[in-house]
User: Fold these one by one.
Assistant:
Number 1:
Amino acid sequence: MKAFGDKFRMLCLALLAAAFLAGSAAHAADTGNAFRDVGNHWAKSVIEWAAANGIANGFDDGTFRPNLKISEREFLALVLRAFPEYEVPEQRPGELWYLRYYAAANRLNWPVADMEAKREYTRGDAARVIAAAHGKLLSVREAVQYLLDNGLAKGKTSATYEGFAAGDPLTRAEALTFIFNARQAGASSDSVGIGVEESAAFARLRGVAIGDSEKAVLAALGEPDRRDPSASGYTWLVYNEDYAEFAMIGLSGGRVVALYSNADVWEQPDGLKPGAPLGTAAGVAGVSRSKLADNETYAFRVDDLRVTLYLDLIEDTVEGLLIERSDAAGGRFSGSQARQAREDLERAYERQILDLTNVFRLKNGREVLVWNGIAAGAARMHSEDMAVRGFFEHVNPDGEEPWDRVAAAGLPDYRAVGENIAAGYVDAFEAHTGWVNSPGHRENLLDDSYEELGVGVRYVADSEYVWYYTQNFYASW
């Protein structure tokens, strides 16, 4: 009987959710959205706003039931309906109603994890999604503080984390109030369009500029070869089918907030692009050439954009270029996110390092390398070993060399094996630049004898350098 009762309860909840989200258009038209149970409710105006804009309607009995609890799937649907620029896919025949909303949320790298609605959804959970809709991937405490600091919430009893009551269940009225505040903030600040004119004048990457819509990117470049998370909370669309045209397009809220490439695919009127001499880069950045020559990376502002130069100091040229909208830039992985988020970022950095290495090789007249999963496994283990046992060497405390580890992982027969290691760099762009500027590591990057590459990245918060990187180069007989 317990199993039957659970199924019956789930059916009733599903019907309630469908009624709340889809509602009755006829009822809304007949009553003018005057729900009979919200006349004196504190969220009356917000509820009427949501109904008038097709975000949420009431039930066939003329009620809205503002104080009922809401699930993650219901809240997600409301947010995405309030922000149509996020482009939710069409519902397919026979598909569960909420799957398309999760597809959109996962594409946007939003913090959602309870598709089956098995637990009580809280105000803190909602705060994380609202922050993500503004391009910020934050912990519950950080997200609550972000809402309070930006006037998106006032808290239940006070404008503090404690007063916000992050652990309390989220009600329908509270959900719509959060969404209304986020929508109004976006409208008043034009948050999805900041910097469009400036970036269009400053630089484009394969015709794409900061502020362009995701729809425009896909129309211009097609579906990406990969979607990667970023430490700043936006999602990278990675185009690597042709390394001569390599591009990474950062998206948040359905808009372009970041551009990166170390290939010659930039359109920049001042000549700032990969391969440009340091003198040109210094002129655009407004600093002396000698100042750039003292740094592997250098960041500066152009209007509402943050520009980061990744420099090849051996050749005195620009190796790569990152342009971000200022309010989306500078994110650092804090380690407070879930384990899966950490692992996803590690795997993203691994594949990005393969991409950056191949673009670098191609620019220098070398053949590109193929991914080797076994070599990557050995590299991953060495990165973790360095972090956990507190050393930074090619030879581990057991006396094992790189080729010993590769052979032990399952590649005993090899023609050539090489290894690059790095630590302390905050992302794949910086780690790659560090190797480019180290003669021995650079030699590995460009060695003609290698055919394959495996990369292992590990984040260990309480280790000496936190981020550890290993490249295993390989060629079979």
Note: The chain has 18 helices and 13 strands.
Number 2:
Amino acid sequence: MYESKFKSVDVDELFSAILQLKTEEDCYRFFEDLTTVPEIKSLAQRLQVAKMLSEKETYTNISDKTGASTATISRVKSSLLYGADGYKKVLQRLGKMS
């Protein structure tokens, strides 16, 4: 069983709440209330960076297309290589990674 570094009762409850979302509209409504616009855009950007890295895009192309800094791209790449495989699982389930 995977044991996260930030596991807590509060985080468990947050994730349980997220798992209750059934539609894209549910997600928009919940995350609009939960986060700021820059926070959600940052999360979306990181997912796009992960997708593009998995497609072997260059840092320059990724930065040009997403506006992500090289520091952000590098952090996402580290997560892809040495992280908890969260990006990989989501990208595979979305059909964006082999």
Note: The first helix runs from residue 9 to 19.
Number 3:
Amino acid sequence: MTGTPDRAAPPTGGLILDGTKIAWHEDRIRAWERGERIAPITIDMSLTRACNYGCHYCYAMLQENDRKDIDQKVIYAFLEDCAEIGVKGISLVSDGESSISPVFIDTVRYGSELGISMAVGTNGFVLNERKLEEILPHLTYLRINISAGERARYAEIMGVKEHWFDRVCTNVRDMMRIKQRDGLAVTVGLQMVLMPQYADQVLPLARLGKELRPDYLVIKHCSDDEDGTLGVDYDGYERLYALLHEAEALSDETYKVVVKWSKIATGHRRSYQRCYGPPFIIQMSGSGLVAPCGMLFNERFKKFHIGNICETRFRDIWRSDQYWEVMNYLASPEFNAQTMCGTLCLQHKVNEFLDSYQKTGAVLPDLSGEPLPMHLNFI
């Protein structure tokens, strides 16, 4: 692939959707440099492996592992452990649809009460007005995964019936009405996982967002595993640059269309070999499995599986030698992210930052006079 897109100006309001906020966590970086066992800043997890959708681009189907049920006792203990050791943010995203878990609302509320920043990525289908009233006051952000702006294509791409599209749109309208009525700080966004064959839906979705009025629509790449199982045509993204710029031009003062150019332009390439990110941001499966990242959830990567919160308290997993043996291996010369990983993982931007910092001996930026970005605890 040749050429690079013109860089659009970052969105206003301190919302960083294409980058990393790790530089604002200097205390954690310094502790990591000293070899201390740091708590993750962010944990990306799910409450279940189950999902009510069948999205064609879904990476979760590549992440199958031994399923266990995360019940209220398990999740409350987990949240208490996170608060105790210093986890700052928990995003309910990962490899299942957390909103269909029976402990979903309790998890959001209790985590918030413990002082943890809580966030949700969801297809939004079951989030009716009653549930929204309960969770929105406790969330930092709520992001709706929606990869089409037209009913028929929505049904085709996301593996559901056409009328489900209408219900999700109604739920988004309710989110914004409740947010505005109560003056809530929660950010509501839409997310399109773009494969080149979904190009016909870029503008319809951007226009739909302009109608529904969430805070933003973010358009991101699609991750694939190291074997290319999903068949993502990364060279095909370059042909969409003009279309993506056209979508961005639909932004206005209160609705932003943001393309994750850094990853779309990068394709499947990484500039680094060592994986430094997991101590700062880890992923957990909806089965309760603790692993460095979602790309390693599958049973064939069992040597990277550290424990399960359904069986062992998270604080004990985090303190274990096995946890840190896995983290240290990923950051060692024995591991090569360019050849042993899938494409552009959750930790990618954090890895880029830390790799450059380690290689160049660069000084951390002085951010003391800078305004704090939104969603600071989701790096």
Note: The radius of gyration is 20 Å.
Number 4:
Amino acid sequence: MTPKQVLELAKKHKAVMVDCRITDWPGSWQHCSHPIGMLEESTFEDGYGFDGSSIRGWQAIHESDMLMIPDASSAFIDPFYAHPTLVLICDVVDPITRQPYSRDPRYIARKAEAYLKQSGIGDTAYFGPEAEFFVFSSARFSTSANEGFYHIDSNEGVWNSGATEGGANLAYKTRHKQGYFPAPPTDTQQDLRTEMCLEMEKLGIEIETQHHEVATAGQAEIDMKFDTLLLMADKLMQYKYVVKNVARRHGMTATFMPKPLFQDNGSGMHTHQSIWKDGKPLFAGDGYAGLSQLALYYIGGILKHSRALAAFTNPGTNSYKRLVPGYEAPVNLAYSSRNRSAACRIPTYSMSPKAKRVEVRYPDPSCNAYLAFAAMLMAGIDGIENKVDPGEPLDKNIYALTPEEAASVPTMPASLDEALRELEANHDFLLKGDVFTGDAIEAWIAYKRESEVDPVRLRPHPHEFELYFDA
């Protein structure tokens, strides 16, 4: 879509505002709105000014002025605002040098795509994330010097099997770890998920499936058709926006927090990926599970760098509450055909060469998609460039390995702090092509330590009172 076509779209829908959105460092949309008369064709070059020091993890106060430049191809009409509003996803640039901002996640994703072409390996990287989430009836939480608590609830929650619920409990609660595919009335959110799908389709997102997920209390999954790296990251931002706002429309709340429930499955984001060149898939071949040698090297790169990748793909302290054995979270770094306990799985639903891909199973949906996708692509490219052998596949239940067998399989980090240390020690593969700059990586590590690792580490945990108060 050209700037002229964007203006025509706004006129067609009688838009009264233009809403400009940027993605902050942790991965959330930030926005500001202008009367539609403030949008002209020249705006797509001149942009809008904003305060970069007020965005998490970005500029210092003495260098706060920045510009957001609308991307005409990203235009859509917001489905939730009361007044017709045109939305434009923006890129961030320095107002003086007019250079793209090194910590703009979209810019990093663009550079990853450019590096793939520059490498000569391929010209297109396709990504297909399967983002899971929970829809709760309510969520309350608070921390202060003298208290800390959370309380979440769901009409589906198995803990409500004995609740009176206004005088009549209609039962059919989802049991722990038994939420995968039950029909209504156990699945109470079919219509809610369908509404989410329909809203996404209005935005041009092609949906492949939706269903209840394994956990109790409204865990769900909606799958989008794969797309190129940058466009898929844009779509995942739209996906989260739609899920949260449709839930809110119905008096509920949605979260992409990886592990909100104790003793039940967390929310992952299995991420399918492949490389193509000149319209041909490069991951199909006559090797293991129908893969090419190039695809196996890509897997080798992913497995080699997974412990450092975790700082982007599993970016919160809560991420590592999910990355534990027994809850379908792949903590062991191995690859396999069909085996869902492996960090890298090769799906076997189709024998078509176009369907050959690798599914990286450890990421979670709290990540910044632009950074996570870019980092995984760079790891895979590094594997191809250096012919990294992924070793032998592990075609058995990894969780059932003997202690001797398990000791030979490397594992994911056990905490965000550990993942950040791995990234500090191993990030040269991300610096190729100036995709990630040293400044960006240092800023990411510093932000995560100061804003997340230390605040969680320093606070007493509610369960510690049960364990130690009578010490």
Note: The two ends are 66 Å apart (CA to CA).
